[in-house]
Design goal:
The chain is about 45% helix and about 15% strand. By secondary structure, the chain is of the alpha/beta class.
Length: about 260
């Protein structure tokens, strides 16, 4: 079974992160598939809307570190190329590609949106969330920087709210995420499909060419984000190989406080 599903209905595509066992954590394969879908969609003039969602009762638990478990806390050999840099940079490419889509991008969050999942939500033109959804950027509590998502969180939420999210790692309910400006509308659990239908119908009034041109103007109004993909990837890889990440992730697995928390092991 594919961990990334694409379903076309007329001029709308639904992209589903589909690995329920990991709460749709962003594996290398899922990142590659998502990036490929973005490139294809950008060149498809017949496509008007993309809906990005998650399957199995979650949106996205963030990055998948299982493939790199052996590298956690292990310094890189001198002069060696770090594959962690490439993997993290690839996710940065996805975030940039999502924000450059000419189509309307609707992000439908039902369940947890953590770390990289929070970053994906920040790329949406419209973000819907069910009442049971929860949002967080917990990387710093694990000894890691939220490297690739930080610019997108900052642009979506503004400096004050972005710092509140990125520097604390605290969890936000759907209504709190709406107050922050991340979520446009909160819908009752089980009502996401109806809310999506309403959202798509409302935006169908917009001509696709005019919508694409308006998105381009809005990107220019904000100015281009500084391209931190390489710097962010290096920072993330370095942290993952360092002692804080090793201790923080070990504590997380054991459901214990990290050493830097008062009372931590």
């Amino acid at each position: 079974m594919s961990n990334f599903l694409v379903v076309r209905q007329g001029d709308t595509e639904r992209w589903t992160l589909n690995d329920p066992a990991t709460r749709n954590a962003l594996s290398d394969g899922m990142v590659v598939a998502l990036f490929g879908a973005c490139l294809r969609a950008k060149a498809d003039a017949s496509l008007r809307t993309v809906v990005l969602t998650g399957g199995g009762g979650a949106f996205c638990a963030g990055g998948s570190l299982g493939h790199f478990a052996s590298a956690i806390g292990q310094p890189l050999a001198e002069g060696a190329h770090d594959p962690l840099v490439d993997a993290n940079r690839a996710f940065g490419d996805v975030l940039h590609a999502l924000t450059e889509l000419p189509q309307l991008l609707v992000v439908a969050v039902d369940g947890p949106a953590m770390g990289g999942g929070f970053g994906l939500a920040c790329c949406g033109d419209v973000v819907l969330a069910t009442q049971r959804s929860v949002f967080a950027t917990p990387e710093v509590t694990l000894g890691l920087p939220p490297a690739q998502i930080a610019p997108f969180v900052w642009r979506r939420l503004g400096d004050r709210a972005a710092r509140d999210c990125l520097l604390s790692g605290r969890h936000f309910s759907a209504s709190e995420a709406c107050d922050l400006g991340l979520v446009n509308d909160v819908v009752a659990d089980g009502e996401m499909e109806a809310a999506l239908a309403d959202t798509l119908a409302r935006h169908r009034l917009a001509a696709p060419g005019a919508l694409a041109a308006t998105k381009q103007l809005l990107r220019r109004l904000h100015g281009p984000l500084p391209d931190l993909r390489d710097e962010a990837a290096i920072a993330f890889a370095s942290a993952l190989r360092g002692p804080e990440a090793a201790a923080g992730l070990k504590a997380f697995v054991r459901k214990q406080p990290a050493p830097w928390v008062e009372g931590g092991a």
